[in-house]
Amino acid sequence: MATIDGLPPLRDVIRQYDLVAKRQLGQNFLLDLNLTARIARSAGKLAECDVLEVGPGPGGLTRGLLAEGARRVVAVEKDARCIPALQDVAAAYPGRLTVIQGDALEIDTRALLSPPVRVIANLPYNVGTELLIRWLTPASWPPFWTSLTLMFQKEVAERIVARPRTEHYGRLALLAQWRTDARIVLTLPPEAFTPAPKVHSAVVQLTRLDTPRYPADEKVLMRITAQAFNQRRKMLRSSLKGLAPDLEDLLTSCGIPPTARAEEIGLEAFCALARAVKARGT
Predict the structure, then answer these.
(1) What is the overall mean pLDDT for the chain?
(2) Which ranges in 57-201 belong to alpha helices (H)?
(3) Superfamily for 10-208?
């Protein structure tokens, strides 16, 4: 579709404001408003939700979110060149779009959002994983958001949803799946973007759980998984050496073979190990 509202097509907007994507900002613009509307719909019903969007660029996804009925959108954009285009979108949807210029890693937008809140974004490639980890590790759980619908490089998306004994399984999968239901809802080829990246992209939806899937102390769980996956090809009796004086007995008590490797162990077993380590105070 050329347009989903009274605003010009995105290619015209980019030409009008001379919005050449900048590699150092991780920018790849998604110009097809069919696709931006599809991403917005994949996040669920938006009419009763506030939406946080990071890196809106010229406003393609922003327009999709508003056209799909989002109650209100708070868009954080680092690139000052994009602000006039976003202000045009705000004018077309009076009172429903707040545009903030700044770095999403430094700005706390929670005071501007009313629950329920969904985070929906075509994240800049250079900060996407860091933002995800921050959203998954707040000071207290549950967080301010009910779901995250986020665009990543396909390889990162596969790491988020990976299962044990697969190529992409690691700490990111454990962290995401400990506290959310995570699934890939859409895959996009490079030519969907301007400029075209060298890799495919994918949209991941993470729906929060009110409590973590299995009980565990976050700091202990993160310490154990970091140690285990830093030497993922080694047996756990070697990679976790120093965790406890009777490590092999401790692993066995949690149903984990000491000769197993980190990539073979599921979330439930890692959480059981974290509880055992916490109970010992080690």
Answers:
(1) 94
(2) 60-67, 83-92, 128-136, 154-161, 171-179
(3) Vaccinia Virus protein VP39 (3.40.50.150)
